[in-house]
Design goal:
The longest helix is centred in the C-terminal third of the chain and has 14 residues. The chain folds into three domains: 87 residues, Rossmann fold (3-Layer(aba) Sandwich), CATH 3.40.50.20; 118 residues, D-amino Acid Aminotransferase, Chain A, domain 1; 63 residues, Dna Ligase, domain 1, CATH 3.30.1490. Helix 2 runs antiparallel to helix 3. By secondary structure, it is an alpha+beta fold. Strands 14-13-12-15-16 form a five-stranded antiparallel beta sheet, sandwiched between helices. A four-stranded parallel beta sheet has the order 2-1-6-7, sandwiched between helices. A four-stranded antiparallel beta sheet has the order 8-11-9-10, with helices on one face.
Length: 306
């Protein structure tokens, strides 16, 4: 299937060999677009009032649209590169502000809570004297303790007793790390649901199950995945969460709790391998179709302002 509209698309990715990057390249080429993978860490920017530019070596880069695949460890520079493209009028699949918003776990939870989205009870503090209150706020042990900077299940600990929770919090504080304490949704049974949202629609969903004895369901921690039928409430929650974050492409992770779906995280650069394999759905193709319909010069909410 080819598009009647030819686009020049850039994927901001560290590697051409990553499954998600290759899948997006294939989908774009099948539709007749000119697509190129750019290692955003090798780019440099010229910031001037007469016209912003972004370069790869000596080459000035120009695209109709960019697909940011920004790694969590390079959020600061990666979002700066996306913002530069926005200021040049390039259409970004996900805007720089939305990526930054989703990467700040505390901010994203506050924004979701303000709009009434279901969440596990979450507590945050700086004062070490507040540890007891933190644990109590989440309903006591067992509870989950998370590093704010952690990704892919790293820096996430299940504290099964009050004493264990106090010890983990004390250890993280000793590293001068910011942490969240969160209610443990025991009834989820070590599983979660990943909904892939593209342009305000859930295009694919899978259930991820942690391996025996593991409460984290991340696939690269040994978890498994299978296609799942989600409820209308789960679908609505996932779509609303992506919209609140301002993301056109989002991986929304939710748990099935006794009081309905609760959001764990909204991911701005969701991996495609697990969900395409589990569901057989061409998610990358749906991403390119969305760009075809929406890519227009200077068509961003923020235009690099915030």
């Amino acid at each position: 299937m080819s598009s009647e509209r030819f686009l020049k698309i850039g994927i901001l990715s560290r590697s051409k060999e990553l499954y998600s990057t290759k899948s997006l390249v294939t989908a774009a080429e099948e539709r007749g677009h000119d697509i190129r993978v750019i290692d955003y860490l090798r780019c440099h920017m010229t910031i001037k009032s007469t016209g912003p530019q972004i370069f790869l070596g000596d080459e000035a880069l120009e695209f109709d649209a960019v697909i940011p695949r920004i790694g969590a460890t390079h959020t600061f520079f990666g979002t700066a590169a996306v913002r530069q493209f926005e200021m040049m009028g390039t259409y970004p699949l996900n805007e720089s502000v939305a990526i930054s918003r989703s990467r700040d776990k505390l901010r994203s939870l506050q924004l979701l809570a303000r709009k009434g989205i279901g969440l596990p009870v979450t507590a945050f503090a700086h004062d070490s004297k507040a540890t007891g209150h933190l644990i109590k706020s989440c309903g006591g042990a067992p509870l989950v303790i998370k590093l704010l900077e952690g990704t892919q299940g790293v820096g996430v600990v299940l504290a099964e007793t009050q004493k264990a929770a106090e010890s983990v919090i004390e250890a993280f504080r000793g590293l001068d790390a910011h942490i969240l304490a969160q209610e443990f949704i025991e009834e989820a049974g070590g599983s979660d649901i990943r909904c892939l949202v593209v342009g305000g629609k859930v295009v694919a969903s899978m259930k991820r199950q942690g391996k025996d004895g593991e409460f984290r369901s991340n696939l690269h921690r040994g978890g498994s995945a299978k296609i799942v039928r989600i409820t209308p409430e789960e679908r609505s929650t996932a779509v609303r969460a992506a919209k609140i974050m301002g993301l056109n492409l989002a991986g929304v992770d939710l748990l099935r709790s006794n009081h309905g779906p609760v959001i764990m995280e909204v991911n701005s650069s969701p991996g495609l391998e697990g969900i395409e394999t589990a569901t057989g759905i061409d998610v990358a193709g749906k991403v390119i179709e969305f760009i075809e319909k929406n890519a227009q010069p200077h068509r961003t909410k923020t235009r690099g302002k915030g």
